[in-house]
Design brief:
The complex is a heterodimer.
Chain A (H helix, E strand, L loop, with lengths): L7 H26 L15 H8 L6 E3 L5 H6 L4 H8 L33 H15 L5 E6 L6 H12 L4 E7 L2 E2 L2 E2 H5 L6 H6 L3 E5 L3 H16 L5 E6 L17 H8 L3 H12 L4 H24 L16
Helix pairs in contact in A: 1-11, 1-12, 2-9, 4-12, 5-6
Chain B lengths: L12 E4 H15 L3 E5 L15 H5 L4 E3 L4 H13 L3 E5 L10 H14 L9 E6 L14 H5 L5 E3 L4 H13 L4 E6 L6 E4 L12 E4 L4 E5 L2 H15 L4 E5 L2 E3 L3 H11 L2 E8 L4 H10 L12 E5 L8 H7 L3 H14 L1
Parallel strand pairs in B: 2-3, 2-4, 4-5, 5-7, 6-7, 10-11, 10-13, 13-14
Antiparallel strand pairs in B: 1-8, 6-12, 9-11
The chains are: A alpha/beta, B alpha/beta.
Amino acid sequence: MTIITQDTKLSRDVLAEMIRIRRFEEAVEDLYGRGMMHGTMHLSIGEEAVPVGVSLALRPDDYITSTHRGHGHCIAKGADLERMMAELLAKETGYCRGRGGSMHIADTETGNLGANGIVAGGVPIAAGAALSAQMRGTDQVAVCFHGDGAMGEGAWHEGVILAVMWQLPVVFVCENNMYGMSMSAEKAFRLEQLSDRARGYGLPGVTVDGNDVQAVYDAANEAIERARSGGGPTFIEAKTYRYRGHSKSDKNLYRTREEIEEWRQRDPIELFKAAAIAAGTLTEADAAAVQDEIRNELREAVQRAAAAPDARADDMLEGVYAR
Amino acid sequence: MTDSQNVQSGELVEMTYSEAIRDALAVAMDADPRVFMMGEDVGVYGGAFGVTGELVNRLGTDRIRDTTISELGTVGAGVGAAMTGMLPIVEIQFSDFSAQAMDQIANQAAKIHFMLGGAVNVPLVIRAPGGSGTGAAAQHSQSLEAWFAHIPGLKVLMPATADDAKGLLLAAIDDPNPVIIIEHKLLYKTTGLVRPGAGRTPIGVAEVRRRGTDLTIVATGIEVSRALEAAEILEQNGISATVVDPRTLKPLDTETIFREVIATGRVLLVQEAVRTLGFMSEVSALIAESEAFVHLRAPIQRLAGMDIPIPYAPQLERAAVPQVDDIVAAATRLVTEW
């Protein structure tokens, strides 16, 4: 079992990846606020430990399906920041050539089968990717990231049931950020923990602190190894929190400032930084250097993306069907 | 069942529509390990309409794969498998149940290629029996092709003969896009001559089933055979009809339709589906917008199902959708009044 904070390089990488996700989203928020970004956006600021902890346990050829709040999954699986930013800035060089935007970024080269604008839309798709891996006789694993809200959707139920029936190599990672838009998961599902539901569906379930990247990694690693070795699917609930609203329309009327502040006290990046410093593998200066590095990386990505040509409308019709 | 491998190439074989589909499944699965099929009761049960029959005995439960009663999950699993190197065929037991699976069909399968900027293909085939005539009433008898044809990104096929049931399925499996094949329940037991081996029916090419001089009937699905029967009766009454079977609704072979409409100057559009906003409404508009319009000697006529849910009682069910007599009457009116 890998203890992240015992390894200097790994600690640095994990910290960098969480900061990369946060800075990317802060840049998006800033560009949006300045009127330079179109559409809507769903930010995962505060939830970074989940995609980073899970991806640490994945291989490059493993699959993920993501959600409308998917920038973190995308980055943690290895997507290119400039192409992501270009997509959000409606550029021809973006991942989807401006056809998809924030909610539809996929990166097949890193096994990312796509964010999804439909809650739980990725659940049966992840089961299908796992079925494909099983039928092709590879030992690839699919991770399905979904939110707590997805557990109210029929697609979640159907996807999990197929995965259990066929003992597919898939891990369902529920990022329970406590609210499906404004609906409290606690009120909605009346479960002490969402992983209690797993037993009824016939798969192992575990709940972890989603702001503790080590805890996420440990649970993901165990589940992914089980899936890879033919042991079937697992459900992981990672309890976390989004600091920002659901999307730009959110006035935060369903939760309190105090609640948000409480969670900020357990910020996943700060928690990990403190742990690595306490373990002696990183210093304050190392952490500051990582911050600077990522700041430059983001600045360059935004500059290059902004300078790219705008997405073109002239060949849209040709893109509907594959040839 | 006729085993494709035992047939001399070039020699047409008589088989039923469902045997032809089964033959296509066997041919495709023998040729490519990526092809598999899944659906409710397609394995040992043999399919609700007997289409898969005993295929599971030869191809195994992995490739003729029974699912739970989960249309949404199954189509979604098909999408995921198609995105990652497999060529899945999903059977939806009755096309009506596609309503359960519509998110995965309309929001996922249809859009993924475009939405992701062309990065991924979704080579998924969905087979779904549609249509009325079995006494199964409103939730098991609809003709929903217009739903699917309305979604950019899907291809929609409606084979009307055994040979096309096989040929279009093979073409659909080859196609890198999501393809929905609406089969007709009443056609499953009908027989026809079928090309042996791996004969494909090209997607996007209509078939002129019969040529006449007085009017052109464009019909889909079960209405193709009804239109041909009607044409025989009309012939005896001195009216000569062309019958065009578009075979694939999307993409649609408008060239053939326009040409055949121009040739006779009258057109009767026949569909089993309800009239309002049905596929033939689109065909009508396409003709009206085309060069064919100026060659018309009569207004474009549509003959379609009544705008009602399909009723149970046999006499009501029959009355709800165009029958041979209705086509004869509509064609006669069109030719004699104009």
